[in-house]
Amino acid sequence: MVNVRLCFYTNGYQTWMWDDTFYPERRVSSFFSKSDLEWLIQKRTERKNTTEYKPNALIAGRIYQIEAITRVAETYEKSHRHALLVMATGTGKTRTAIAFVDFLKRAGWAKNVLFLADRKELVSQACGEFKKHLPSATTCNLIEDKDDPSARIYFSTYQTMLGLLELDLQ
């Protein structure tokens, strides 16, 4: 039996990737670079079981925040690629996101993160909060900095991100 590690296939218009060890096939925008492929392979061996980690209660310590992070991590552990948290105003969405990013990075599940918001003020606020709670993480506000290849956590509005994507397509 052939052990397929990563398989890319295309019809000339769409490209798909199949990772036989964890996720089902999915549509991707293009073939991966060598460094992206190396990261995928490295992540397979270095990714930890999320049950071995607990969310940082100093960042997001409310019971429902910890529960939300734990449940999303369980969802990812079951080979799902998407999860949605719906939280009301004042419930600590940003701090939950910061604690979740910290959780995923410590467990070896995330390398880069994109934080999207609908207003510049929210992007600036979130960037400041991430710097405050994760001071060792390198950040880049795409509204102000435009690009920092050394950053691991990026911040942007939807509109700015769409503009950057349009520039890349030209």
Automatic annotation (TrEMBL):
InterPro entries: Helicase/UvrB_N (IPR006935), Helicase_ATP-bd (IPR014001), Helicase_Restrict-Modif_Enz (IPR050742), P-loop_NTPase (IPR027417)
Domain Helicase ATP-binding residue range list: 74-170
GO molecular function, one term: helicase activity
Keyword Cell inner membrane attached: no
Annotated keywords: ATP-binding, Helicase, Hydrolase, Nucleotide-binding
Pfam families registered for this protein in UniProt: ResIII
Name of the protein described by the UniProt record: DEAD/DEAH box helicase family protein
